[in-house]
Amino acid sequence: MDALNQLTDEALVQMYANGDDSAFDVLLCRYKRKVFSYINMVVKDKDVASDLFQETFIKVVSTIRQNRYKENGKFVAWLMRIAHNLVIDHFRRDSAENLVSGEADGEGEPSIFDTIQIYDKNVEDEMIEKQVYADLVKLVDSLPEAQREVLKMRFYQDLSFKEIAEATGVSINTALGRMRYALINLRTLANENHIFLGA
Question: Burial of 187 by CB count in 10 Å (0-12 exposed, 13-18 middle, 19+ buried)?
Answer without folding.
Answer: middle
